[in-house]
Amino acid sequence: MYPDDHRLWSRYGYFTMWLGKKRTAIIAFETALRLRPYFKEALDGYDLARGKGYIYTVNDTTARYNYGLPVPRSYKVYAIDRYYRILKKNPGNVAVRYKLIDELLKHDRYEEAVKQLNVLKLTESNTPNFQSVKDEVLSKREKYYSDKISSLINQVEKNPADRKKIIELGKYYSFLKEYDNEVDLYDKYLNVYSADTEIRYLKAQALTWKGDLFKAKDELKNVLNSDPSNKKYQLLYGQVLVWMNKDLDVAETNLKSVLKKEPNNLQALITLTGLNFQRNDLASAEIYLTRGFMVDPYNHNLEKLENSIKLQAERNAETKLYEILEKAREYAFNKNCDEAINYYNKYFSDSASDIHLKKELAEAYLCKKDYDSAIQIYNDLLSTFPGDYELAKQRAKVYYWMGDSLHALDEFEKLVLNNPDDADAKIYLGDSYMKAGDYANARATYEELLAIAPSSYILQTRMKWLGNAGGEGYSGSVFPAYFSIIPEGYYYNDNLDFTYNKQGARLELGITNYLSLGAGGYFGFISSANERLNLNMFRADIYVKFSKKVLGYAGAGTTNFKSAGSTHIFEAGLKTQEDKKYTFSATFYSTDAAFILYSPFLVNRRLTANYLLLTGEYITKNDIFLRGDYSYTSVSDGNKGSRFIFRIGKIFDDVFGTGYEYYYYNFNNDTPLYWSPDNYESHSLWLDWDAITEESFVLSLKGKVGIIPDDNFILREFYSYFKFYFVRNFFLQATAGFSSSIQDRRGYSSFSFGLSLYWSL
Q1: Given this model, what pLDDT does residue 560 score?
Q2: Phi/psi at 420 (nearest 5 deg)?
Q3: CATH 2.60.40 fits 490-760, yes or no
Q4: 8 Å CB contact between 47 and 25
Q5: N or C: fewer beta carbons within 10 Å in the chain?
């Protein structure tokens, strides 16, 4: 039953020796020592059986004749055992590990060789020797197992009831990860011998490695009903439940039962560590982790769990700290100022707290009118972050609110000098002048702001406070702020004979410097090789400039197709930008699918497409360029698609950029109506060049060259942008683009051209 158990052989040796069967006892002790050299119990028994179990020394020249016993044998130390002993003392001995793999291959011990490869992989994976040895091991292993499988299949076919051969065949299927074949093998056997719990356990094991945990769980329930105390069954059942994150109490009971029978069962210790980690019971997880390391100090799974536990402990601490912060914010929101201050101080007593959030503590002090404490916090923050403009402005406001107008005036003068475009700081500067009695400077400040926002109620009110010198507070700004006429046209054509052409004009009216309205009308056509559909478009737009850097817009209209009905147009977007630094935008566009998907098969078929585009672009201080585009398209035929583009590169001298682009495009369903790729990918080198950047003339050239791996095709794209000012308020703008790629395994090329003329009055 257990031929390799050295303890049983040793006990058997003592048993037979006490019966007087010394020759049998000697063989038993020798077998135990072969299995485990230097096993003291067996060594002592071996000496006793040979009559050497005495503590005194004797020079016996007749030793070979004592009791008629044979001459003591010398024991051969096998190379594999020697290498294992060396590695146990020195796990980092790479040379010995390679020798061990070589010896294991000689004796067809391939699974042990693979385990040694996994150890070497951590440090040797990039070396030629490792790759060579790995290839040799895997090649020989596959051939050996395949030969074994072929032989065993023949034997099982001849005798389907040969349980031993079935178990052996299943083992080799498992080694090659042919779990489906292994499960089928066991099923055929169990159809006849359904009560065989061991085979059912092996089936559950195969289902587990296959990833079918639910079926494995059911099979393990069956075998445990037949043999509820079998630790092997309990262990796997506990593992499956933990991996499923189901019935963790049941899993814990089974795993603890295994440890009760075998306290050093490494797999049970690892699984219990993971179970308690899943429960977020990190203290218990640490206990089992420590016990596991005592069994195997170099276990990779334990090391991963140790790192996970450390990270989770940090997260738990962060969560607890964040709960304190949220409690402070809740009290502050409900104007419970003292409790808010209490919790904020508790939060900031932790070294992991975010010092930037101390301004929230300052606001809590403001809540209870403790201006001095708030000022002290801002002073401390500004000593740490001396260049923080917003902190300085907030401190200046506190000076103003506490009635220290001279301090406030001094601070706001510095702020406005540093940032003349900050309207908020300018209003407070004017208020500080007024509070200090300097009405002339207050009036001058308000009038400067009124020139930008003439309809501001706040500014008009302050001018009234100043008396007659301010009048009604409305400076002589003229309506409209601007008026633009913009004729424009667009043309697109591809090698599938799809053409889209439109031309028309739009008008823009500036209501204020921050609000504009627009309207446009266009006519044109879309066509394929056999069809042409004339169209006209009308739309109205609104533009809102929230600040110098943030612009929002929305538009709505309709497209009328000759003899083919009409579709609605809706577009909205938000964009924030700082030139040469960052751009972030979000756009939503809903219109006829032909104008988004550009397909000849949509010319006479009316579908609606909704298109969402998110774009982010950032240039670091050392001119590293990062850009990401994500778009989502939903079509009224039920299809949905998404596209992701990522660019990284370097900008040189503010005019030239180059780098890498990753492009991914995917649709849920394939349709013949338009290009709807399945996991389309490309990798490209992109180049952008601002060739001319004069005040009255701008020329930009952009392009990319890349590869589409699935089609082994070189893609090419080129784009140009041209802008020329005839006078300051009259300029021409043009774009042109060309692309060559693959669509549905066919070459695809397209050309586009756009032209517009801007005339502002």
Answers
A1: 93
A2: -65, -15
A3: no
A4: no
A5: N
Instruction: Name the residue among 651, 634, 548 with its Cα closest to residue 597.
Output: 634
Q: Are 614 and 630 in contact (CB under 8 A)?
A: yes
pLDDT tens digits for 395-445? 998 888 888 878 888 888 888 888 888 888 888 888 888 887 777 788 888
Mean pLDDT over the full length of the chain: 86
For residue 603, the 8-state DSSP code is: T
Place of tokens 């200046």: 396
**CA distance linking residue 552 with residue 574, whole number of Å:** 4
Picking from 335, 345, 391, the residue whose alpha carbon sits closest to that of residue 367 is: 335
Q: Does the pLDDT value for residue 261 go beyond 80?
A: yes
> Residue 362 in contact with residue 374, Cβ under 8 Å?
yes
Question: In this structure, is the dihedral angle defined by the CA atoms of residues 458, 460, 466 and 467, taken in order, positive or negative?
Answer: negative
**CA–CA distances in Å: residue 160 to residues 147, 166, 190, 514:** 19, 8, 11, 86
Say if residues 372 and 407 touch (Cβ distance below 8 Å): no
Regarding beta strands 608-619 and 482-494, do their DSSP bridges make them parallel or antiparallel, or are they unpaired? Answer: unpaired
Distances (CA, A) of 24 to 16, 149, 546: 7, 39, 98
How far is Cα 301 from Cα 523, in angstroms, rounded to an integer?
67
| CA distances, 443 to each of 27, 351, 473 (Å) | 113, 48, 9
Q: Is 453 helix (H, G, I), strand (E, B) or coil?
A: coil
DSSP string, 293-315: HHH-TT-HHHHHHHHHHHHHHHH
- In sequence order, the 6+-apart residues with CB closer than 8 A to the CB of 673 are 599, 601, 602, 605, 607, 637
Better-scored residue on pLDDT, 563 or 644: 644
The owner of tokens 């299949």 is 153
Mapping DSSP onto H, E and C, the string for 378-423 reads: HHHHHHHCCCCHHHHHHHHHHHHHCCCHHHHHHHHHHHHHHCCCCH
Query: Looking up tokens 């709807």, which residue turns up?
Result: 676
CA dist., res. 723 & res. 756, Å (int): 10
Q: What angle do CA 387, 393, 397 make, to 5 degrees?
A: 150
CA distance 353 to 331: 18
Q: Please report where in the chains the tokens 């899993």 appear, as a residue.
A: 251
Give the span between the Cα atoms of 460 and 464, in whole angstroms.
Answer: 6
CA–CA distances in Å: residue 673 to residues 420, 593, 606, 637: 56, 10, 11, 10
Q: How many Cβ atoms are within 10 Å of 639's Cβ, its own excluded?
A: 20
pLDDT tens digits for range 603-616: 988 999 999 999 99
Q: State the residue for tokens 């201006």.
A: 371
DSSP helix/strand/coil, 492 = strand
Dig out the tokens for 688 from the structure. Answer: 């952008």
Nearest-angstrom CA–CA distance, 582 and 620 = 9
Q: Residue 368 and residue 225: Cα distance in Å, rounded? A: 68
Residues 318-377 pLDDT 10s: 888 888 888 888 988 888 889 988 988 888 888 777 888 888 888 888 888 888 899 998
**How confident is the model over 180-203, as a mean pLDDT?**
88
Q: What angle do CA 151, 154, 156 make, to 5 degrees?
A: 110
* Domain 387-477 top-level CATH class: mainly alpha
CA distance 729 to 453: 22
| Residue type for position 90 | N
Residue 713 buriedness (CB in 10 A; 0-12 / 13-18 / 19+): middle
Q: How far is CA 650 from the centre of its chain?
A: 24
* Whole-model pTM over 0.85: no
Domain boundaries, the chain: 6-76, 316-376, 387-477, 490-760
DSSP secondary structure of 170-238: HHHHHHTT-HHHHHHHHHHHHHH-TT-HHHHHHHHHHHHHHT-HHHHHHHHHHHHHH-TT-HHHHHHHH
Q: Which two tokens stand for residue 181?
A: 């074949």
Tokens of 698: 């701008």
